[in-house]
Each structure stands twice: as C-alpha cells, then as structure tokens.
Amino acid sequence: MWAFDADQGAIDYAANRYPSMDYVVMNALDIKFPAASFDIVLSFEVLEHLTKSEQREVPERNVARPAPGGVGPVDPQPGCLFRWVTPSR
C-alpha cells in the first residue's frame, strides 16, 4: 500500500502513525507510478485544492488497473460524500 502527498510534513506525520505503508512526496498532477500499477486508487481531499482545469489533468485514472479496479476520489463535495470512478480503456 502506497501513500503520497506533496507536503513532506504530511508524509512524516502519516509515516509516524502508519509505519506499515510506503510513502513518497509527490504532486497529484505529476504521478510517477507507471500505468496500471494499482488495483484501487483512492484520493482523499485533493480536488478542492486544484483549479477546475487541474482537476481534469489529474492522472490518477492512468495508474489504476481496469475494472474491477478503479479510482475513488473522496472529497468534501456538496451532496456527494463518495464517488467511485471506473477507468475506461
């Protein structure tokens, strides 16, 4: 299981609390993992920090394997607590 964040402080905090995971400092707009690297990709509270045009550029779908895998953005959006997105290939 991997986790990444653009902020080293956030990575340090998470690594201290959950040492069994692998962590890397990385920007959501520049994901360095190869395509289809993960069965499931979850992003927590990312989209509200990006402009509308940046939200369309987030490459998280590319690193998720096709169904039954997928991407689950988890962001505080009015009327939508959780949504599941299956990559179309």
Describe the protein:
By secondary structure, the protein is α/β, with parallel strands linked by helices. About 20% of the residues lie in helices and about 20% in strands. The protein has a single domain, classed as Rossmann fold. The chain is built from three helices and four strands; from the N terminus they run βαββααβ. The model has no long low-confidence stretch (mean pLDDT about 75).
CATH top-level class: Alpha Beta
Strand order of the largest sheet: 1-2
Rg? 13 Å
Described by its quaternary structure, the protein is: single chain
Report mean pLDDT, rounded to a whole number: 76
Beta-strand portion reads 15-25%
> Order of helices and strands, N to C?
EHEEHHE
Main sheet makeup = 2 strands, parallel
Large-scale geometry: globular
When the domains are counted, the total is 1
